[in-house]
Amino acid sequence: MAFKLPELGYAYDALEPNIDARTMEIHHTKHHNGYTTKLNAAIEGTDLEGKSIEEILKGLDMSNTGVRNNGGGYWNHCLFWENINPNDRGRLSGELLDAVNDAFGSKEDMMDQFSKAAATRFGSGWAWLCVHEGGKLDICSTPNQDNPLMPGVGCGGTPILGLDVWEHAYYLNYQNRRPDYIGAFWKIVNWNDIEAKYAAAK
Ligand code: MN
């Protein structure tokens, strides 16, 4: 069964003014849709067909650039749209807050480290907050559409929060001001979603 572009579950203008509607629409209908279509083409007729996207990425032959780039692009954006869902954002609390304090000292220190990973990623890529077995958190970044599920990439573990720092994610509104975009991202993070992902992954 082919992978499908997920519905966002919210309007393109729901993240204004932090992410503008035009950027969201192009990002979803062009970029994410493109990764989805090309992923399906790349796995069609291969033994990857019928596997879950997580299975595909965890067992990936990294020289398979079609699946690496488009499978990564597919999965990364699915996570990202959920991470910034504007409905019922909640706040950082409970066992996720405890894990953040254990790993980084405080919420602010975690945000600083994540923001630095996002700001210093040269060219295109992603910043990640990942959970490892036992619930320990760490932060890393990856180039292009790679992600920590892939063998030998980034910090490993399961990403529960991802930030897209490709220029297509922010250039219309922020031009070269990536740090401003990163600052805006923190205003739209859905902590309830991240907490649910933490509970599922730890
Ligand atoms: Mn993107």
Write up this protein:
- With 202 residues, this protein is mainly alpha-helical.
- It has one domain: Iron/manganese superoxide dismutase, C-terminal domain (minor pseudopilin epsh fold, 3-Layer(bab) Sandwich).
- The protein is 49% helix and 10% strand.
- It has eight helices and three strands, in the order αααααβββααα.
- It has helices spanning 21-43, 53-58, 65-83, 94-104, 107-120, 171-174, 178-188, 191-201; strands at 125-131, 137-143, 158-164.
- A three-stranded antiparallel sheet has the order 2-1-3.
- It is globular, with a radius of gyration of 16 Å.
- It starts with 20 loop residues before the first helix and ends with a helix.
- The structure holds manganese (II) ion.
- Manganese (II) ion (MN) binds at residues 27, 31, 77, 164, 166, 168-169.
- Manganese (II) ion binds next to helix 1.
